[in-house]
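Kindly go through the entry underneath: sequence plus C-alpha coordinates. Please state briefly how this chain folds according to its C-alpha coordinates.
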Amino acid sequence: MIGNALETMLDCLEENIPVKDLARIAEVDVRTMRRYLYEGVEPGFCKLYKISRSLFKDDVQLIDWAYKLELPENIKAAMEYLSLNKNLDVLNDYIKVKVDTSTNKNLKRWGALYGMISSYEAGEIKNKEMLDKVRKVSTNDSEMKLLLNLVEANVCYRILSTSAAYLHTMSRICDEIEQDVYDLKDCFFRMSFEVRLNDLLGKRFLYVLADVEKAREHAAKNISQDICAIFKANSYYLLGTSFTFESYELSVLNTKQAIDVYREANYEGFADELERWFLPFLDAHHGVKVTEGVPVVIAHYEAKWGDKGKALEIIEKEVSEAEEAMYYFYYKGLATNDSDMLFKSLSQFLKVGDLFFAQLPLEQLRKSETLKSVAEAVYGQFAK
Protein backbone atom coordinates (compact mmCIF):
# COMPACT_ATOMS: atom_id res chain seq x y z
CA MET A 1 0.00 0.00 0.00
CA ILE A 2 1.10 3.53 -0.72
CA GLY A 3 0.72 4.54 2.94
CA ASN A 4 3.37 2.02 3.97
CA ALA A 5 5.65 3.32 1.22
CA LEU A 6 5.23 6.89 2.49
CA GLU A 7 5.98 5.76 6.06
CA THR A 8 9.09 3.96 4.88
CA MET A 9 10.18 7.04 2.97
CA LEU A 10 9.85 9.18 6.11
CA ASP A 11 11.87 6.67 8.13
CA CYS A 12 14.67 6.63 5.57
CA LEU A 13 15.09 10.38 5.19
CA GLU A 14 18.21 11.82 6.81
CA GLU A 15 16.23 14.76 8.11
CA ASN A 16 13.15 14.09 10.23
CA ILE A 17 10.01 15.51 8.63
CA PRO A 18 6.94 15.86 10.89
CA VAL A 19 3.56 14.80 9.53
CA LYS A 20 2.38 18.41 9.63
CA ASP A 21 5.22 19.44 7.30
CA LEU A 22 4.46 16.58 4.93
CA ALA A 23 0.82 17.71 4.93
CA ARG A 24 1.91 21.26 4.07
CA ILE A 25 4.01 19.98 1.15
CA ALA A 26 1.07 17.95 -0.18
CA GLU A 27 -1.29 20.88 0.43
CA VAL A 28 -3.67 18.91 2.67
CA ASP A 29 -4.55 19.12 6.35
CA VAL A 30 -2.81 16.95 8.95
CA ARG A 31 -5.85 14.72 9.42
CA THR A 32 -5.92 13.90 5.69
CA MET A 33 -2.20 13.15 5.69
CA ARG A 34 -2.62 10.79 8.63
CA ARG A 35 -5.32 8.98 6.68
CA TYR A 36 -2.84 8.58 3.82
CA LEU A 37 -0.15 7.26 6.14
CA TYR A 38 -2.07 5.06 8.55
CA GLU A 39 -5.62 4.37 7.33
CA GLY A 40 -5.09 3.01 3.83
CA VAL A 41 -6.47 6.04 1.98
CA GLU A 42 -4.67 6.45 -1.34
CA PRO A 43 -3.56 10.03 -2.01
CA GLY A 44 -4.06 11.52 -5.44
CA PHE A 45 -1.12 11.35 -7.83
CA CYS A 46 -0.86 15.15 -7.69
CA LYS A 47 -0.19 14.97 -3.94
CA LEU A 48 2.50 12.34 -4.44
CA TYR A 49 4.07 14.43 -7.19
CA LYS A 50 4.26 17.47 -4.89
CA ILE A 51 5.88 15.41 -2.12
CA SER A 52 8.38 13.86 -4.51
CA ARG A 53 9.23 17.22 -6.10
CA SER A 54 9.85 18.79 -2.69
CA LEU A 55 11.94 16.02 -1.13
CA PHE A 56 13.90 14.42 -3.98
CA LYS A 57 16.12 15.60 -6.81
CA ASP A 58 14.79 13.04 -9.29
CA ASP A 59 11.58 11.09 -9.89
CA VAL A 60 12.83 7.61 -8.89
CA GLN A 61 10.74 7.64 -5.72
CA LEU A 62 7.67 8.93 -7.53
CA ILE A 63 7.87 6.17 -10.12
CA ASP A 64 8.31 3.59 -7.35
CA TRP A 65 5.16 4.92 -5.66
CA ALA A 66 3.31 4.82 -8.99
CA TYR A 67 3.64 1.03 -9.10
CA LYS A 68 1.88 0.82 -5.72
CA LEU A 69 -1.16 2.84 -6.84
CA GLU A 70 -4.54 1.11 -7.19
CA LEU A 71 -7.07 3.82 -8.03
CA PRO A 72 -7.68 4.08 -11.81
CA GLU A 73 -7.52 7.90 -11.71
CA ASN A 74 -4.09 7.72 -10.13
CA ILE A 75 -2.83 5.12 -12.60
CA LYS A 76 -4.04 7.34 -15.46
CA ALA A 77 -2.17 10.30 -14.00
CA ALA A 78 0.98 8.20 -13.58
CA MET A 79 0.80 7.23 -17.27
CA GLU A 80 0.40 10.90 -18.19
CA TYR A 81 3.49 11.77 -16.14
CA LEU A 82 5.58 9.08 -17.82
CA SER A 83 4.26 10.00 -21.26
CA LEU A 84 4.86 13.72 -20.78
CA ASN A 85 8.47 13.03 -19.76
CA LYS A 86 8.90 10.55 -22.63
CA ASN A 87 10.00 7.85 -20.19
CA LEU A 88 8.81 5.31 -22.72
CA ASP A 89 10.41 2.11 -21.43
CA VAL A 90 8.94 2.64 -17.98
CA LEU A 91 5.59 3.69 -19.47
CA ASN A 92 5.39 0.49 -21.52
CA ASP A 93 6.25 -1.63 -18.48
CA TYR A 94 3.79 0.30 -16.32
CA ILE A 95 0.98 -0.36 -18.79
CA LYS A 96 1.77 -4.09 -18.71
CA VAL A 97 1.91 -4.25 -14.92
CA LYS A 98 -0.87 -1.86 -13.90
CA VAL A 99 -3.27 -1.70 -16.85
CA ASP A 100 -3.15 -4.94 -18.80
CA THR A 101 -3.91 -6.87 -15.60
CA SER A 102 -6.84 -4.60 -14.67
CA THR A 103 -10.50 -5.40 -15.25
CA ASN A 104 -11.40 -1.71 -15.49
CA LYS A 105 -12.45 -1.12 -19.11
CA ASN A 106 -11.97 2.64 -19.02
CA LEU A 107 -8.47 2.25 -17.62
CA LYS A 108 -7.67 -0.21 -20.41
CA ARG A 109 -8.79 2.39 -22.97
CA TRP A 110 -6.42 4.90 -21.39
CA GLY A 111 -3.65 2.31 -21.42
CA ALA A 112 -4.24 1.65 -25.12
CA LEU A 113 -4.03 5.39 -25.87
CA TYR A 114 -0.81 5.88 -23.92
CA GLY A 115 0.60 2.76 -25.56
CA MET A 116 -0.15 4.31 -28.94
CA ILE A 117 1.47 7.59 -27.89
CA SER A 118 4.52 5.66 -26.71
CA SER A 119 4.83 3.88 -30.06
CA TYR A 120 4.55 7.20 -31.86
CA GLU A 121 7.21 8.88 -29.74
CA ALA A 122 9.48 5.87 -30.32
CA GLY A 123 9.12 6.36 -34.08
CA GLU A 124 7.15 3.17 -34.62
CA ILE A 125 4.14 5.11 -35.93
CA LYS A 126 4.66 7.85 -38.52
CA ASN A 127 3.03 11.28 -38.36
CA LYS A 128 0.14 10.86 -40.78
CA GLU A 129 -0.60 7.33 -39.55
CA MET A 130 -0.73 8.68 -36.00
CA LEU A 131 -3.02 11.49 -37.07
CA ASP A 132 -5.38 8.97 -38.60
CA LYS A 133 -5.32 6.75 -35.50
CA VAL A 134 -5.97 9.63 -33.11
CA ARG A 135 -8.88 10.93 -35.17
CA LYS A 136 -10.51 7.49 -35.17
CA VAL A 137 -10.59 7.18 -31.39
CA SER A 138 -14.12 7.68 -30.07
CA THR A 139 -14.72 8.50 -26.41
CA ASN A 140 -17.10 10.32 -24.07
CA ASP A 141 -14.32 10.82 -21.50
CA SER A 142 -13.67 14.58 -21.40
CA GLU A 143 -10.06 14.22 -20.20
CA MET A 144 -9.30 11.68 -22.90
CA LYS A 145 -10.86 13.96 -25.53
CA LEU A 146 -8.51 16.75 -24.43
CA LEU A 147 -5.49 14.47 -24.58
CA LEU A 148 -6.49 13.34 -28.07
CA ASN A 149 -6.84 16.99 -29.12
CA LEU A 150 -3.43 17.84 -27.68
CA VAL A 151 -1.80 14.90 -29.41
CA GLU A 152 -3.53 15.71 -32.71
CA ALA A 153 -2.31 19.32 -32.53
CA ASN A 154 1.22 18.18 -31.74
CA VAL A 155 1.27 15.75 -34.66
CA CYS A 156 -0.03 18.47 -36.98
CA TYR A 157 2.83 20.70 -35.88
CA ARG A 158 5.39 17.99 -36.62
CA ILE A 159 4.16 17.21 -40.14
CA LEU A 160 6.37 18.76 -42.79
CA SER A 161 4.06 19.95 -45.55
CA THR A 162 4.01 22.29 -48.51
CA SER A 163 0.68 23.57 -47.19
CA ALA A 164 -0.18 25.63 -44.11
CA ALA A 165 -3.22 23.43 -43.45
CA TYR A 166 -1.62 21.36 -40.68
CA LEU A 167 -0.30 24.39 -38.80
CA HIS A 168 -3.69 26.04 -39.10
CA THR A 169 -5.35 22.89 -37.74
CA MET A 170 -2.95 22.97 -34.79
CA SER A 171 -3.86 26.61 -34.23
CA ARG A 172 -7.60 25.93 -34.41
CA ILE A 173 -7.39 23.06 -31.93
CA CYS A 174 -5.50 25.24 -29.45
CA ASP A 175 -8.28 27.84 -29.63
CA GLU A 176 -10.97 25.21 -29.13
CA ILE A 177 -9.48 23.46 -26.09
CA GLU A 178 -7.57 26.18 -24.23
CA GLN A 179 -10.30 27.06 -21.74
CA ASP A 180 -11.25 23.41 -21.23
CA VAL A 181 -7.66 22.66 -20.19
CA TYR A 182 -7.66 25.53 -17.68
CA ASP A 183 -11.01 24.31 -16.31
CA LEU A 184 -9.89 20.72 -15.63
CA LYS A 185 -10.68 19.62 -12.08
CA ASP A 186 -7.99 16.97 -11.70
CA CYS A 187 -4.91 18.71 -10.30
CA PHE A 188 -2.23 16.72 -12.11
CA PHE A 189 -3.97 16.48 -15.49
CA ARG A 190 -4.57 20.22 -15.41
CA MET A 191 -0.88 20.93 -14.71
CA SER A 192 0.35 18.43 -17.26
CA PHE A 193 -2.08 19.39 -20.02
CA GLU A 194 -1.21 23.06 -19.47
CA VAL A 195 2.43 22.17 -20.13
CA ARG A 196 1.44 20.43 -23.37
CA LEU A 197 -0.82 23.33 -24.33
CA ASN A 198 1.71 26.06 -23.56
CA ASP A 199 4.25 24.28 -25.73
CA LEU A 200 1.79 24.32 -28.63
CA LEU A 201 0.62 27.88 -28.00
CA GLY A 202 4.19 29.13 -27.94
CA LYS A 203 4.86 27.54 -31.32
CA ARG A 204 1.53 28.76 -32.67
CA PHE A 205 2.18 32.37 -31.68
CA LEU A 206 5.77 32.32 -32.92
CA TYR A 207 5.50 30.52 -36.25
CA VAL A 208 1.87 30.82 -37.31
CA LEU A 209 1.22 34.37 -36.05
CA ALA A 210 4.76 35.79 -35.65
CA ASP A 211 3.66 37.28 -32.33
CA VAL A 212 6.92 37.08 -30.40
CA GLU A 213 5.57 38.66 -27.20
CA LYS A 214 2.76 36.12 -26.87
CA ALA A 215 5.14 33.30 -27.77
CA ARG A 216 7.51 34.42 -25.02
CA GLU A 217 4.65 34.55 -22.49
CA HIS A 218 3.85 30.89 -23.07
CA ALA A 219 7.53 29.93 -23.16
CA ALA A 220 7.99 31.63 -19.79
CA LYS A 221 5.16 29.57 -18.30
CA ASN A 222 6.81 26.31 -19.32
CA ILE A 223 10.23 27.50 -18.19
CA SER A 224 8.78 28.09 -14.72
CA GLN A 225 7.18 24.63 -14.46
CA ASP A 226 9.09 21.64 -13.10
CA ILE A 227 6.92 18.70 -14.19
CA CYS A 228 8.96 18.06 -17.33
CA ALA A 229 12.49 19.20 -18.20
CA ILE A 230 12.00 18.44 -21.89
CA PHE A 231 9.23 21.03 -22.23
CA LYS A 232 11.32 23.50 -20.23
CA ALA A 233 14.14 23.01 -22.77
CA ASN A 234 11.66 23.36 -25.66
CA SER A 235 10.67 26.73 -24.25
CA TYR A 236 14.24 27.98 -23.89
CA TYR A 237 14.75 27.02 -27.54
CA LEU A 238 11.54 28.82 -28.55
CA LEU A 239 12.64 31.86 -26.56
CA GLY A 240 16.03 31.81 -28.28
CA THR A 241 14.39 31.51 -31.67
CA SER A 242 12.04 34.39 -30.92
CA PHE A 243 15.02 36.78 -30.62
CA THR A 244 16.48 35.79 -34.02
CA PHE A 245 15.69 39.16 -35.58
CA GLU A 246 16.19 41.26 -32.45
CA SER A 247 19.17 40.12 -30.41
CA TYR A 248 22.02 37.76 -31.26
CA GLU A 249 23.06 37.66 -27.61
CA LEU A 250 19.62 36.71 -26.26
CA SER A 251 19.13 34.14 -29.02
CA VAL A 252 22.42 32.44 -28.18
CA LEU A 253 21.92 32.72 -24.40
CA ASN A 254 18.51 31.04 -24.43
CA THR A 255 19.53 28.41 -26.97
CA LYS A 256 22.49 27.43 -24.78
CA GLN A 257 20.09 27.19 -21.84
CA ALA A 258 17.95 24.84 -23.93
CA ILE A 259 21.00 22.71 -24.75
CA ASP A 260 21.95 22.44 -21.07
CA VAL A 261 18.43 21.42 -20.02
CA TYR A 262 18.10 18.91 -22.88
CA ARG A 263 21.37 17.30 -21.76
CA GLU A 264 20.24 17.21 -18.12
CA ALA A 265 17.09 15.41 -19.31
CA ASN A 266 19.19 12.95 -21.35
CA TYR A 267 17.83 14.35 -24.60
CA GLU A 268 21.25 14.43 -26.21
CA GLY A 269 19.92 14.29 -29.78
CA PHE A 270 18.06 17.60 -29.48
CA ALA A 271 21.02 19.24 -27.75
CA ASP A 272 23.43 18.02 -30.43
CA GLU A 273 21.13 19.31 -33.18
CA LEU A 274 20.98 22.79 -31.70
CA GLU A 275 24.76 22.88 -31.37
CA ARG A 276 25.27 21.49 -34.86
CA TRP A 277 22.69 23.61 -36.68
CA PHE A 278 20.89 26.37 -34.82
CA LEU A 279 23.76 28.11 -33.04
CA PRO A 280 25.78 28.27 -36.31
CA PHE A 281 22.61 29.49 -38.07
CA LEU A 282 22.44 32.38 -35.62
CA ASP A 283 26.14 33.08 -36.22
CA ALA A 284 25.61 33.13 -39.98
CA HIS A 285 22.53 35.33 -39.78
CA HIS A 286 24.27 37.91 -37.59
CA GLY A 287 27.57 37.96 -39.44
CA VAL A 288 29.70 35.82 -37.13
CA LYS A 289 32.00 33.88 -39.46
CA VAL A 290 31.15 30.19 -39.94
CA THR A 291 33.95 28.12 -41.48
CA GLU A 292 33.09 24.55 -40.53
CA GLY A 293 30.14 22.34 -39.74
CA VAL A 294 26.88 22.02 -41.67
CA PRO A 295 27.59 23.07 -45.30
CA VAL A 296 24.29 24.88 -45.73
CA VAL A 297 25.08 27.11 -42.73
CA ILE A 298 28.45 27.96 -44.26
CA ALA A 299 26.59 28.80 -47.47
CA HIS A 300 24.25 31.05 -45.48
CA TYR A 301 27.17 33.01 -44.02
CA GLU A 302 29.02 33.29 -47.34
CA ALA A 303 25.86 34.30 -49.23
CA LYS A 304 25.05 37.07 -46.78
CA TRP A 305 28.49 38.30 -45.70
CA GLY A 306 31.29 36.65 -47.67
CA ASP A 307 32.16 34.78 -50.85
CA LYS A 308 28.93 34.57 -52.86
CA GLY A 309 30.50 32.29 -55.46
CA LYS A 310 31.45 29.79 -52.76
CA ALA A 311 27.94 30.05 -51.38
CA LEU A 312 26.41 29.20 -54.77
CA GLU A 313 28.60 26.13 -55.12
CA ILE A 314 27.48 24.82 -51.73
CA ILE A 315 23.82 25.67 -52.34
CA GLU A 316 23.67 23.79 -55.65
CA LYS A 317 25.34 20.79 -54.05
CA GLU A 318 23.78 20.66 -50.59
CA VAL A 319 20.35 22.33 -50.66
CA SER A 320 17.36 20.61 -52.26
CA GLU A 321 14.93 22.93 -54.03
CA ALA A 322 12.24 20.26 -53.86
CA GLU A 323 12.57 19.59 -50.10
CA GLU A 324 13.69 23.00 -48.80
CA ALA A 325 12.35 25.45 -51.36
CA MET A 326 12.03 28.39 -48.97
CA TYR A 327 15.64 28.12 -47.80
CA TYR A 328 16.97 27.23 -51.25
CA PHE A 329 15.48 30.41 -52.76
CA TYR A 330 16.52 32.48 -49.73
CA TYR A 331 20.18 31.42 -49.80
CA LYS A 332 20.35 31.65 -53.58
CA GLY A 333 18.67 35.06 -53.54
CA LEU A 334 21.24 36.26 -51.02
CA ALA A 335 24.13 34.87 -53.07
CA THR A 336 22.94 36.37 -56.36
CA ASN A 337 21.19 39.52 -55.09
CA ASP A 338 18.17 38.23 -56.99
CA SER A 339 14.96 39.79 -55.69
CA ASP A 340 12.84 37.30 -57.63
CA MET A 341 14.49 34.49 -55.68
CA LEU A 342 13.83 36.30 -52.42
CA PHE A 343 10.17 36.80 -53.35
CA LYS A 344 9.94 33.08 -54.15
CA SER A 345 11.40 32.33 -50.73
CA LEU A 346 8.92 34.69 -49.07
CA SER A 347 6.07 33.03 -50.95
CA GLN A 348 7.19 29.54 -49.91
CA PHE A 349 7.50 30.46 -46.22
CA LEU A 350 4.03 32.00 -46.29
CA LYS A 351 2.63 29.01 -48.16
CA VAL A 352 3.73 26.59 -45.44
CA GLY A 353 2.41 28.94 -42.75
CA ASP A 354 5.72 30.02 -41.21
CA LEU A 355 5.31 33.76 -40.76
CA PHE A 356 8.24 34.01 -38.38
CA PHE A 357 11.02 32.74 -40.64
CA ALA A 358 9.32 34.40 -43.62
CA GLN A 359 11.05 37.44 -42.14
CA LEU A 360 14.37 36.10 -43.47
CA PRO A 361 13.64 37.05 -47.10
CA LEU A 362 11.39 39.93 -45.99
CA GLU A 363 14.32 41.46 -44.10
CA GLN A 364 16.38 41.52 -47.32
CA LEU A 365 13.55 42.79 -49.51
CA ARG A 366 12.95 45.68 -47.12
CA LYS A 367 16.41 46.98 -48.01
CA SER A 368 15.13 47.92 -51.46
CA GLU A 369 13.11 51.13 -51.62
CA THR A 370 11.27 49.86 -54.71
CA LEU A 371 10.47 46.40 -53.32
CA LYS A 372 9.90 47.16 -49.64
CA SER A 373 6.24 48.15 -49.87
CA VAL A 374 5.36 45.24 -52.19
CA ALA A 375 7.07 42.69 -49.94
CA GLU A 376 5.41 44.10 -46.83
CA ALA A 377 2.02 44.03 -48.55
CA VAL A 378 2.46 40.37 -49.51
CA TYR A 379 3.57 39.50 -45.99
CA GLY A 380 0.75 41.55 -44.51
CA GLN A 381 -1.89 39.56 -46.39
CA PHE A 382 -0.89 36.47 -44.39
CA ALA A 383 -0.16 38.22 -41.13
CA LYS A 384 -3.72 39.46 -40.64
Notes: The CA atoms of residues 26 and 47 lie 5 Å apart. The chain has four domains: 1-125, 140-225, 228-287, 295-383. Residues 228-287 form one domain.
